[in-house]
Amino acid sequence: MTGNHEATVSLEGLSVAYGDERAIDDVSFEVHRGEIFCLLGPSGCGKTTTLKTVAGLESPDEGDVYVRGSRVTDEPAYSRDTSVVFQEWALFPHKTVLENVEFAPRMDGESRERRAEEARSVIETVGLSGKEDAYPEELSGGQKQRVAFARSLAADPSVLLLDEPLSNLDEGLRREMRLEILRIHEEFGKTTVHVTHDQQEAFTLADRVGIMRDGCLIQVGEPSEVYSEPKNRFVDDFLGETTFVEGTVSDGCIETPVATFAADAEDGDVEVSLRPEEVFLSAPEPSPDGGGSVSGTGEVIKRIDQGSIVRYHVHADSLEDRLLSEYSAREDPGFSEGQTVSVSVVDDPRVFDESGRRVT
Amino acid sequence: MRGSFRSSLDLLYDKLSGVSAGALVVPFVVFETVLFLGAGVYLLRVSLAEPTALSAFEEGTWTVSNYLDVMTDEYLMGRLSYSIRLGAVVTAVTVPLGFVYAYAAWRAEGRRKITLLSGVLVALLISIVIKVYAWVILLSPEGVINRLLVGTVTDSPVSLLGNSFGVVVGLVYSMLPYVVLTVYSVLATLDERSIEAARDLGAGRLRSVYEVVLPGAAPGVIAASVVCFSWSSVAYAAPVFLGSPSERTVAVEVGRLFTQSFDWSHAAALGVISMVAILSTAGAGTLTYTAWRRYM
């Protein structure tokens, strides 16, 4: 995060259609200088199309793209001040690592010595010294990934566009590369738009996230803000595992099979979202301070020990869906499967009406 | 009955899957050896036999005089040189044209891609003789093209037939499908996104093709050039129907020696010499191209 909130990229009312199908619909947002902005959404939500429109690889049917204040909507990709790190990296297979990385400076017409020097320095920064003369096919996934970053960085763009660059790596490498992206970002300070369907990835990297669905941008905000104050049921559901419990509102009270909540809402049917960290289990005797509204008993169906955290699947009485409850390993109450427990939940959960809109 | 058929199929499959891929090409290699190599050896043998007026060649004799005769024959060597130049011109026209066509087909999607590809496939289905005659109708002094030209562009018919122009047009047309399909098959293995990447990194449309597509397509371009060159330099139908006697290729001369003079020995010698000359020209071209690519 930089203090300077000048918009480096801004999209205004962007729409792209393929035939009758709208890939993205009236998308507008701004990316501040130096920040990492993550577009997050399920596959097919239009996030990659949005990114390609910023790069100039896709032209919008409506709306405008601005990079550093100037309108670039009609400028071709090669003259835009942006660079994409592609999903499968799209390295040039017939060029060596050095030739790949010095491609952009070469297109800029820089001298042979100058561009080789620049390329070598970027290659060193991404930790690939010694691999300059290797061909992409001789590299591992993680190394190819680094070459792709180096190639884009060597173009020295104002905006770096990352199109799910980690989706081809296995879990361990992905975690390592996330930190690597942060390190590179710190070193180069590039304004970055990152597209991903992986919530963890977005939350690790992003200064701000934009949640997309069906071609529309639904909510933009800092990760913690979007997580704790989702605008609608979709965002709540997408950002973490949760159980939706049906309830009814009457006289400022939400009745659910699990618990009753006070709520300032209109009468009608609602759904209450209960995340694993919002459901508490205790020994069957009603405890004096349960940490929330006590709601009766349930049975532990499954205990999943994931090492650092422990998760319980609980079948609460009078509820069809199972509730999830999560504890850190240190605070694990240590129930076993089949045991009857007392279930309580937070007293201010997120509530959505029938159309999925946030009520409270 | 059916069950046992099934199980014997399974058995065959099991047996085959144990066989290495190399072994599977054995039938093909045997076929090629017998038909191509066998015929080649026979041709070589005939070219080394003494000619005789009584039959095709004198069996059991050995001589190199046929080669000397052919190589000192100014007319035949002139035909050989013409053939190679013709092949070079046809290749120089067809390969760039075919590359552009194949590139368009590769980048196109849906119906347009199917239309472009079936266009060349349909051209392959038509017999060479019919294709050549179609050009006769188009190019002749009273043909379609001249009828359009006379009165609008020129006063008298332009001679498009009976010269090298007609031969080149006919050959380019018949070679184009082979070039397009050869180049396309290689392009299809390339990653289209590397073009996007090149454009994103500052390369214009042509530059990105030159930088990214051409190196990847090189094997296809080379193969297509070799095929185009070696086929068009020994073309038979197009030179005969669309050209005049001065457009005769070596293939036409070999045919004349075989069938009209009944002089198999000299015909075979001319055949062997042409083959060597054309293959070495194609080889030299390929080497030059690869060296140039590497230097770039």
Shape estimate of chain A: globular
- At CATH level 3, the topology of the largest domain in chain A is Rossmann fold
Alpha-beta classification of chain B: mainly alpha
How many strand elements of chain A?
20
User: What is the H/E string of chain B?
Assistant: HHHHHHHHHHHHHH
Subcellular location (chain B): Cell membrane
Keywords (chain B): Cell membrane, Membrane, Transmembrane, Transmembrane helix, Transport
Organism (chain B): Halorutilus salinus
Protein name (chain B): ABC transporter permease
Characterization of the model:
The complex is a heterodimer of chains A (360) and B (296). With 360 residues, chain A is of the alpha+beta class. Chain A folds into 2 domains: 7-238, Rossmann fold (3-Layer(aba) Sandwich); 243-353, no CATH class. Helices cover 23% and strands 35% of the residues of chain A. In chain A, the strands form 4 sheets. Chain A has a 6-stranded mixed beta sheet with strand order 6-7-8-3-9-10, sandwiched between helices. In chain A, strands 13-12-11-14-20 form a 5-stranded antiparallel beta sheet. In chain A, strands 15-19-16-17-18 form a 5-stranded antiparallel beta sheet, with no helix packed on it. In chain A, strand 12 and strand 13 (260-262) form a beta hairpin. The longest helix of chain A is centred in the middle third of the chain and has 18 residues, at 171-188. Chain A starts with 6 loop residues before the first strand and ends in a 7-residue tail after the last strand. Chain B is mostly helical. Chain B: It holds the Pfam family BPD_transp_1.
Give the topology:
The complex is a heterodimer of chains A (360) and B (296).
Chain A: E1 7-18, E2 21-32, E3 36-40, H1 47-55, E4 62-67, E5 70-71, E6 82-85, H2 97-101, H3 103-107, H4 112-125, H5 141-154, E7 159-163, H6 171-188, E8 191-196, H7 199-205, E9 208-213, E10 216-221, H8 223-228, H9 233-238, E11 243-250, E12 253-255, E13 260-262, E14 268-274, E15 279-282, E16 293-305, E17 309-316, E18 323-328, E19 340-345, E20 350-353
Parallel strand pairs in A: 3-8, 3-9, 6-7, 7-8
Antiparallel strand pairs in A: 1-2, 1-4, 4-5, 9-10, 11-12, 11-14, 12-13, 14-20, 15-19, 16-17, 16-19, 17-18
Helix pairs in contact in A: 4-5
Chain B: H1 2-18, H2 21-24, H3 26-47, H4 65-72, H5 74-107, H6 110-125, H7 128-139, H8 144-149, H9 164-187, H10 193-200, H11 205-232, H12 237-242, H13 250-259, H14 264-295
Organism (chain B): Halorutilus salinus
Protein name (chain B): ABC transporter permease
Transmembrane segments (chain B): 21-44, 82-104, 116-140, 160-187, 208-232, 267-292
